[in-house]
Amino acid sequence: MKKRLIILGSTGSIGTKALEVAADFPERIEVVGLSAHGSIKLLSEQVARFKPQSICVSRTDAILAGANLAQTNGAAFFPGNAGLVQMIEQTEADIVLVATVGFVGLLPTLRAIDLGRTIALANKEVLVMAGNLVMAHARERGVDILPVDSEHNAVFQCLGGKHCSKEVRSLILTASGGPFRGLRQSQMDSITPAQALKHPTWNMGRKISIDSATLMNKGFEVIEAAHLFEVPVDMIRVVVHPQSAVHFMVEYIDGSVMAHLGITDMYLPIQNVLLHPVRLPNRFPSMNLADLATLTFEAPDHASFPCLDYAYESARRGGTYPAVLNAANEIAVERFLNGEISFLDIPRLIGAALENHSAGSANSLDEILEADRWAREYVSR
After folding, report:
1. pLDDT, mean over the chain
2. 197 in the same domain as 293
3. Residues in the chain with pLDDT < 50?
């Protein structure tokens, strides 16, 4: 059966990989909707190749070019962030890949769930800020949320697509350690955005690269895993694994540990999700374990990278704290990339936002949006 696919964030690293998968399995995947923030040149190439029914461009100064692109190709056009929701509402699809970055992915994800669409989730911030709400909504609608992140997809595969049983003692997520593994805070005062963007293993977007450098990305993944697999956050452990060959390990109550290994290419988890539950051969060679030579593991340096602890703390507190964590991080990373603050100011601002937040219950979307608004304003000023 051919799945009709909408990709939110088609010009980013996940979106472009997803289109590689779609191109390799045309008998399985039909691309019906594409959205981009503002990369019109790349979007136009994608539209020419895949001929989607619908196009969305969200960045204000690129909307006119996006409208012209849609008109030229006979596609429906949806402008702005609101257009993400409108495109989902007005384009028939079976699966929606949410590959946008940050807060902007939340409302379209909720609307896609409303409409009964399967969610391929690459935007971890959606579950960080509103995990209880999103997962409850998905359960009510009987909608599958399939994880695209390499670590969570590895969990998904190891558990056979099921939630954790009572036989599981812990879930172990691996982290590369980022470009500054081994440095102490005293050595990080002069880190530049260019240095922080050079991830040692993965080729990713700007925001997620900075999150990986601070280990906030791994903290987000801990919260995301707690929601996806319905486990307490303290059942999830993080180990630093620089080779990035082992993506996940599950420890059972009898001491047995099952590990998921794979080539470090996001094509593989994306294929797994988009073709689920079918497995098909692809163009990748077998993994040569002899080439790995050495696999090493070490504990995270919590003192030098406090963002990981902030994520655990926010998850334990619950309520609107995770939404504040996410929003504070988004603004702090943006300010760092703009040269307004130092690398070490990112965790300082996040910690201050969490310390000064008056928690809400996060039982409604309005509460989550208000916490998000407050944190953005607080960190901005």
Report:
1. 94
2. yes
3. none
